[in-house]
Amino acid sequence: MKRIDTLSYSLLLSGIALGAVAFLKFRFNPTLQLEVIVALALYYFIWGAVYHFIKRDFSHKLMLEYLLISLICVGVGILVFYL
Amino acid sequence: MIRHKIVHHFLPHFLVDSEFAINSGHAQKLHHRAHAISTFSLFAYVQLVLVLIVSLYFVHLKAPKILGTATFSADQIIALTNQKRAQNGLGALSYNSQLAAAASAKAANMFAENYWAHFSPSGKSPWQFITAAGYRYVFAGENLARDFDNADAVVNAWMNSPSHRDNLLDKNFKEVGVAVVSGKLTGHDGILVVQEFGAGVSQQQAKIVQAPAVQAEQSEASSSAKEATESSQLTVNSSPKEESAPTINSEPITVNQTATVLASRQFSIAKIISFGLIAFIFLMFALELLITFKHEHLRVRPAVIAHLAILAFVLFALWYAVGGAIL
To answer: How far is residue B144's CA from residue B158's CA, in Å, rounded to a whole number?
Structure first.
């Protein structure tokens, strides 16, 4: 199980690191920066669903928590990079 | 009691499971996260963000002056450009009215055809505007910026982008013309800045030196238009022998040397509020993680680390957010 944890977190952190690099690459293009944030929020939500399914502690309440944090991230992205 | 209630809002805490205690005769402590990051609170934050988005949108639409106004001019852009050149040991660019007219025509065309690119959807190149204004060049270049609220921010953004910086600090350029225009471009009200660089034929008759970083040759302009459109900055050498003057539709937009930015503080307001909210949520989850680590009998909820990772990314994104775009 520890191996699954290590692999899962490596995948999550690699995705986020890649997102950070893409974000800096598009530094002067707010539209693409917002797209990076939306893509990462979606990736994080899907990662959460798959990870907790594998760990067998998947619950609707937990998924709601992931969904709400994803929505907050996308919301502030729209607030800063789109409006 | 009140103190405990306040603390429970911000720190994870432990409550005795009364049902378990009654049934077994032993007290069992249950781990509760801070109320500030409960599902209910997270839902409230989502609603808060939605309200902010809608409010800022409508204020921007109906009464943008509430969000501040700022004014900046083409002269400021030229002065700051020359300041950067001086700091790098280069000569100052002199103002050229033909290049300024070309910049104004380019800006007007961008609003008329509603595009944000070096090449128009109908295929007009930056060089056509320069030539149409009567400027015969050996070298020419173009920088674009939009939605910034001050001249400093525009020039700093260009300086932080290698390709735009190359244009600002190109020793081949001798003259400059800038247009600062307010209007609605691709659905957004804001300020558009067009900066045209040039070295006139009369200045470089004797020797024509190859530009150090030529991204688009004029002779190949039509064939490479698509690739060039995707580049962030353009430099060209040699004026074409014959150029057709671009036709520009007249639209009710303001083309001036000076432009007023409405809702100039909107970006800063949105950035500060967003950063504060995300930092607060991040801190609450970080506290949960730290306090759980300190108590050996507690296990870290796996979701907390994932939440911290995505929130850290958003904090990073907000920290590096810039209130405008360049091309």
So the answer is: 9
Contact of B174 with B197, CB cutoff 8 Å: no
Q: Which two tokens stand for residue A44?
A: 């994080």
Tokens 């009200």 correspond to B189
Chain B 158-197, CB below 8 Å of chain A: which residues? 160-161
Per-residue pLDDT of A22-61, as tens digits, reads: 999 888 888 899 999 999 999 999 999 999 999 888 889 9
Type of residue numbered B177 = G
Question: Residue B73 to residues B77, B80, B104, B194, B261: CA-CA distances in angstroms?
Answer: 7, 11, 13, 12, 11
Query: CA-CA distance, A17 to A31, in Å (whole number)?
Result: 19
CA distance A68 to A51: 17
pLDDT band at A70 (very low <50, low <70, confident <90, very high): very high
On chain A, the residues whose CB falls within 8 A of the CB of B49 are 71-72, 75-76, 79
Question: Could you tell me if A23 lies within 8 Å of chain B, comparing CB atoms?
Answer: yes
Going by C-alpha positions, the residue among A78, A36, A74, A40 that lies closest to residue B306 is A40
Query: Which residues are CB-contacts of B50 (< 8 A; sequence separation ≥ 6)?
Result: A75
Query: To which residue do tokens 């607030």 refer?
Result: A79
Local mean pLDDT, 10-residue blocks, chain B (327 residues): 72 59 55 82 95 89 74 87 92 90 91 89 88 88 88 90 90 90 80 89 53 36 37 50 40 52 76 94 91 76 90 94 85
Neighbour count for residue B99 (Cβ, 10 Å): 29
Cα A65 from Cα B307, distance rounded (Å): 9
d(CA B48, CA B276): 13
Q: Which tokens hold the place of B160?
A: 């932080």
Q: Do B53 and A12 touch (CB under 8 A)?
A: no
Interface ipTM: 0.96
User: How far apart (Å, rounded) are the C-alpha atoms in residues A24 and B315?
Assistant: 13
